[in-house]
Amino acid sequence: MIIKTVDLETVCGITSKLPENTKPEFAFAGKSNVGKSSLINALMNRKSFARTSSSPGKTQTINFYNINDSLYYVDLPGYGYAKVSVEVKAKWGKMIENYLHNSPMLKCVFLLIDIRHEPSDNDKTMYDWIISNGYQPVIIATKLDKLKRSQVAKALKVVRTGLGIGADVTVIPFSAETKQGREEIWDLIDESVNSLDKE
Ligand SMILES: Nc1nc2c(ncn2[C@@H]2O[C@H](COP(=O)(O)OP(=O)(O)O)[C@@H](O)[C@H]2O)c(=O)[nH]1
Ligand SMILES: [Mg+2]
């Protein structure tokens, strides 16, 4: 994918109305600190356009990045941050569910899982929400560079088993450090956009 322009076009809080975009949307979900902003930066060819944070749990908004005026990357609020109140957690859940349920231009949901960890209950809930809204999640196993090459196959198996997914579900190992996996994600997005253009 050739990135010509990127623009943080819309930031939605809990009470904002979702934008009525006319270009396809690709959403990124995952627990806070899993590497969503880092992935989105890599997919935008930018170093720090999407804010990355060492203090997790900060992003309580849905951020829409307009890419080349032809599609959107959608950064969903990170879940599972222990230090926020039950009410705030419930709000995040509502925002994400509302987005998944009411986004006619949403074409694909990527679910990010840290390759080093077994998926949490929140990850499984997110996976189920995506499915129950009619989408087949594509899993991105983040922070690939943190593992030795010899550990990767086993770690990917733990991710698959933890989510209870079969061989038909795509799992893409990714590193924001080395950019490994980026082409594969771009290819999926390109394919989806191109198939829409033919409709
Ligand atoms: N080594 C390594 N660190 C990463 C990677 N992706 C993200 N990080 C780090 O993990 C932390 C959280 O990343 P961020 O993108 O802000 O996560 P978000 O909360 O999901 O948006 C930051 O310190 C990043 O530098 C990766 O692929 N490799
Ligand atoms: Mg972030």
Can you tell me about this structure?
The protein is α/β, with parallel strands linked by helices and 199 residues long. It has helices at residues 36-44, 86-101, 121-132, 152-163, 182-198, and strands at residues 6-12, 25-30, 62-67, 71-75, 106-114, 138-142, 171-173. Strands 1-3-4-2-5-6-7 form a seven-stranded mixed β-sheet, sandwiched between helices. The longest helix has 17 residues, at 182-198. The structure holds guanosine-5'-diphosphate and magnesium ion (MG). Guanosine-5'-diphosphate is lined by residues 30, 32-38, 52-54, 56, 78, 142-143, 145-146, 175-177.
Summary keywords:
199 residues; alpha/beta; Rossmann fold; seven-stranded mixed beta sheet; 5 helices; 7 strands; 33% helix; binds guanosine-5'-diphosphate; binds magnesium ion
Q: So what's the overall shape?
A: globular
Q: How are helices and strands ordered from N to C?
A: EEHEEHEHEHEH
CATH topology: Rossmann fold
Low-confidence segments: none
What is the CA-based Rg, rounded? 16 Å
Largest sheet: 7 strands, mixed
Instruction: Give the tally of structural domains.
Output: 1
Query: CATH superfamily name?
Result: P-loop containing nucleotide triphosphate hydrolases
* H/I helix tally: 5
List the helices and strands and how they pair.
Elements: E1 6-12, E2 25-30, H1 36-44, E3 62-67, E4 71-75, H2 86-101, E5 106-114, H3 121-132, E6 138-142, H4 152-163, E7 171-173, H5 182-198
Parallel strand pairs: 2-4, 2-5, 5-6, 6-7
Antiparallel strand pairs: 1-3, 3-4
Bound molecules: guanosine-5'-diphosphate and magnesium ion.
Guanosine-5'-diphosphate is lined by residues 30, 32-38, 52-54, 56, 78, 142-143, 145-146, 175-177.
